[in-house]
Amino acid sequence: MDDLVKATGVSRHGIYATFGGKKAMFLACFDQYQQQVVTPAFEVVEAPSADLKSVAEYFERQISAGEAAGLPGPGCFVANSAAELAPSDPDVMLLVKRHNDRLKRGFAGALTASMPSIDEGKASNLAEVLVIFTNGLWTLSRSVSSADPLRRAVRNFLHLLSDNTK
Quick one: which of 2, 9, 123, 155 could link to 111 by a disulfide (CB 3.0–4.6 Å)? Predict the structure, then answer.
């Protein structure tokens, strides 16, 4: 908040008043993050043509962005919110759930496209595991100075996934 006050020249009170309070400001930031970061990131797995290569591309794009920004990085705003705020805030919990459900739908579609014989239930279950892996990966990005362990984890996980879906 101090950085925001310095950058804008507006007082804390003025900033909070504009948004209707601290929580309302946080929720507005969450919404902006969804629009500006998440939607462009998810487009590769939400595309009608998405497949397992698209899932690998999603991870690579995100890892490359973290690498360009400098690792260790701040992690994912949504993953951080899930860990720090969602357990005690039902509004944040709902937003995190919507985010994860959206990613799960994208992953399930990509799995189904890659493996037409997979049944919907199995695709959904595997997509759920992929979401959990994703959140863990972004948490790990907060404690590594190189992208190598992130890429290795993705490569190994996708290899295991493709072996278990044949």
Answer: 123
Contact (CB, 8 A) for 57 and 71: no
Fold of 26-163: Tetracycline Repressor; domain 2 (1.10.357)
User: Is 46:108 a contact under the CB 8 Å cutoff?
Assistant: no
Say how far apart CA 113 and CA 52 lie, in whole Å. Answer: 8
Question: What six digits make up the tokens of 33?
Answer: 């993050």
| Tally of residues, the chain | 166
Question: Which residue bears the tokens 């008043």?
Answer: 17
pLDDT in tens, 17-57: 888 888 999 999 999 999 999 999 999 999 999 999 999 99
For the whole model, what pTM was predicted? Answer: 0.90
